[in-house]
Specification:
mainly beta; Immunoglobulin-like; 4-stranded antiparallel beta sheet; elongated
Length: about 150
């Protein structure tokens, strides 16, 4: 397919991360050869059944150009989510960028909660317990690996 628009005008370095269970942050850089007045707009679709929605909360650079988006109340489904960033400029046509992303692969996990340490000086041992981190996707019983770093004082 022929991409309409000026070469080098599409965004670059698009990436997203999900954190704090239901927040998602996507960022990008303006195309290297995009005209100075280019403004970008992000649309996404969490699954084929849902409506395509425009970003509600853009992150802007010092020139008021959109360079990212913050999403709230994101839920991770089983399908890949679809992202599309298009642009507009009064001078020329801007190429669009699109990508399908498995949201569960970009989730940054929360740390474990309710960590307790009980040490018995007579037996010379300690019991450390915690609750596994909350995760936003449904595959809740995947195996978690933990690393415990103990520093003696």
């Amino acid at each position: 397919p022929v991409l309409a628009g000026m070469n080098g005008s599409a965004i670059e370095n698009f990436s997203c991360v999900i954190y704090n269970i239901f927040l998602m942050n996507c960022t990008w850089q303006a195309g290297r050869d995009a005209p100075a007045d280019t403004q970008y707009f992000l649309y996404w679709q969490n699954s084929r059944d849902e409506e395509e929605m425009e970003c509600e909360l853009y992150i802007k650079d010092e020139n008021c150009r959109n360079i990212g988006c913050i999403f709230q109340n994101v839920s991770i489904g089983i399908e890949k989510a679809y992202f599309l960033v298009n642009g507009s400029s009064k001078d020329s046509l801007i190429q669009f960028y699109d990508e399908y992303i498995d949201l569960y692969k970009i989730e940054k996990l929360m740390p474990p909660s309710n960590i307790t340490v009980n040490c018995d000086e007579i037996k010379n041992d300690c019991i450390i317990q915690w609750q596994r981190p909350q995760i936003s996707h449904s595959n809740k019983d995947k195996c978690f690996k933990y690393e415990i770093n103990i520093k003696y004082k």
